[in-house]
Specification:
Helix 4 packs across helix 8 and helix 5 packs antiparallel against helix 8. The protein has 635 residues and is α+β, with helices and mostly antiparallel strands. Strand 8 and strand 9 form a beta hairpin. The strands form two sheets. A seven-stranded antiparallel beta sheet has the order 9-8-7-6-12-11-10. Strands 2-1-5-3-4 form a five-stranded mixed beta sheet. It contains 14 helices and twelve strands. The two termini are 64 Å apart. Among the domains are: 82 residues, Phosphatidylinositol 3-kinase Catalytic Subunit, Chain A, domain 1 (Ubiquitin-like (UB roll)); 248 residues, Roll (PH-domain like), CATH 2.30.29; 104 residues. GO terms for molecular function: actin binding; identical protein binding; protein-membrane adaptor activity. It is found in: Cell junction, Adherens junction; Cell membrane; Cell projection, Rhabdomere; Cytoplasm, Cytoskeleton. This is FERM domain-containing protein.
Length: 635
Amino acid sequence: MSPFGSKKNRSLSVRVSTFDSELEFKLEPRASGQDLFDLVCRTIGLRESWYFGLQYVDTRSNVSWLKMDKRVRDQRVDLQANNNTYVFSFYAKFFPENVSEELIQEITQHLFFLQVKQSILSMDIYCRPEASVLLASYAVHVQYGPYDYETYKDGMLAGGELLPKGVTDQYQMTPEMWEERIKTWYMDHEPMTRDEVEMEYLKIAQDLDMYGVNYFPITNKNKTKLWLGVTAVGLNIYDERDKLTPKTTFQWNEIRHVSFDDKKFTIRLVDAKVSNFIFHSQDLHINKMILDLCEGNHDLYMRRRKSDTMEIQQMKAQAKEEKQRRHIERKKFIREKKLREKAEHERYELEKSLEHLQNEMRMANDALRRSEETKELYFEKSRVNEEQMQLTECKANHFKTEMDRLRERQMKIEREKHDLEKKIRDADFYVHQLTVENDKREAETEKLRKELICAKMAEREATALLLNFLNSGRKSSTDSLLAAANVHVTQSNNAASSLAAVSTPSLATSSSTNDIDTAGGAELTTHYLAQGDNSSGISDDFEPKEFILTDNEMEQITNEMERNHLEYLRKSKKQVQNQLQTLRSEIAPHKIEENQSNLDILSEAQLKAGENKYSTLKKLKSGCTKARVAFFEEL
């Protein structure tokens, strides 16, 4: 047997990645692209398969779509980087014109939601910052369900990728600030099922300028670099620096035939009077992709304008029945939820009342305990006051006794003072008398001194006479002379005695006065010492410290959480625009101008001009086809 036989019969390993799952298959070697695509659709339960395709990277590192009519192994899938495993990505290849009218299955909506969300986060689809916040709130709703204040925790949204990096870099805002604004929108959404939220997301996303547009670099006859945008409604031509606002457009109903020759692409228009629409691409691979997308979008465009096939009618009928069933179940669920919320509210109110009563009981017990403590403190204070009163009474009695003693001592001192004053008066009177007598005696002393002098002179004279007498007549005159001498001597002695007597009373008077002063000083000293003893015996009055009873005020915090169940109607575009304008005004002060990209600047200019995706296309379609072709060629 040839060694290649077993190799041909070996099955193919295939891995298909969707946005929420990884699928692995074993295919027969002769399996075609359509076989693999049908297998994937059956596995995930997808019936609206005409929007999707299998994308892969070929051996030249070009992104390509799997051809349905060729075998899988014959298409140049790069196997070197995947260990001989065929790796494909299941993506939406074509986009509907109106998601709410065309998408039928939930799985279809979900796959579109995941792909569009990823394109916005990766900035393949430009989205204004305020619209990014709104879409992020819907993405959170899809992930976590309706907002529930009991389960929502601050920081819960910080872990996920919710906003494009270009948006967060453009504003000087913390993740907490972005989360707060996303949370505001999230709280505003009514409770919806996942498919309803995803549909709301897609309805907003389809209004973005770059939604559903596949861009390819081309040039016109003037070699001007342009972008060709293949969309669900036609072909758009964009300036090289502006992917938001098309320069001109051609709808599929204006195009008859699309073909290419090498790098030259030719588009024949329905109007035979108009020349062909010709442009050039970079290589043949791009032309193949453009042709493939043009054919698919053109077929879907024409199919939408025809009556639905039986398959689609059946799908829509089933989807309608399913929606009605879900609507009934949802009403039932809402009714049961309201009853449960009512019961929970009543339970909450009862628990709140119970908690309030328990708090009141606890407060009453605390008040009773504080009253008991206060009572004990008052009893203790009363006992201390009684002891203080007894001590005060003892001190008062002591003070009274001491006052009586001091009063008696004061009276005694007063009497002694009175006696002393009397003695002093008597002493003064006596001193006065002694002074008068002393003056008299001094006069007498002076008189006696003079007499003594006279007596001494007489004595000397007598002595002289005596001597003379002795000499002359000693005998006869001796007796007379002795008598005269005796008289003079007696007089002298009397004068000396008088002088001594006068001096002695004066000295006695001085001694008596000193004794009186000493006695008086001793009495006064005793008096003041007694007063000093009196002052030292008086103690300070007892002042009992005042007792202040402080009760800790307990604040009763009642969290009245009222969940206002407002009937929510689907927001019209005007309401959404008003909310977006409000958010735009809120975050405008945090904008960092130098971090703005070219698309941000173009979007701001478009917003100021009051233009949007639909108004621009409407304006471009207003001219005739010939004029638009001529405009393209002159670019």
